[in-house]
Amino acid sequence: MPSSVPALAKSTRNETEERLLDEALTLFASKGFAATSVREIIEATGVTRPVLYYYCDSKQDLFERVVRWKHDDAYRELDATISGTKGVSNRLRAIVRGTFAFCAADPRVPQLMFQTTFGPTVSELTDFLQAVSDLRFGVVVRVIQEGIDTGELHGGDANSLALLLCSIMDYHANVLTRLPHAASRLTPELADSLVDAFLFGVATARRKTPDIPAVF
After folding, report:
1. Can you say how many angstroms the Cα of residue 185 is from the centroid of all Cα atoms in its chain?
2. For the domain bounded by 70-200, which CATH number is listed?
């Protein structure tokens, strides 16, 4: 993991910090970083200002901790799963299945992602968010590049193909987590069908895909 996105060890967090991160996530996901005030976070959490600043140095620091809180373990598990999965098609299915399960488990996470990606630019978060994005995108690029190198994939460079897959995957995650019962919508079956469309197109017969366990 890049040094610009340092891990936040779970063992360092107590109940108060967990509550602070949870309430901050709710506010950042619904309102965005810029529109969320420190006062709102304090009122939602029920802590005093000194307590808030005991756990974080600033609103920016709190935001970064929220992101790491939700993403650190997920990235480690994703990397481990990909390393233990053979074949580019199975690896891509594992990525999309895992992403869907991760987003369905807490819809605030994709909402936060899209707030920060498509909302107003926040200059103080630019480097951090780019590092987080590069980390995630880099996983997909690596898998696709390996598929190109082995001859399993053709028809483009790794970065362009990764962007195409992420666009398909992320748009579904964004839309479906805003609807009721996201877990029943972001299914492994949907994940596999999207990977099949990416790999084989939509005008050709689909290949039967094996069962791939959820990543997250």
Report:
1. 17
2. 1.10.357.10
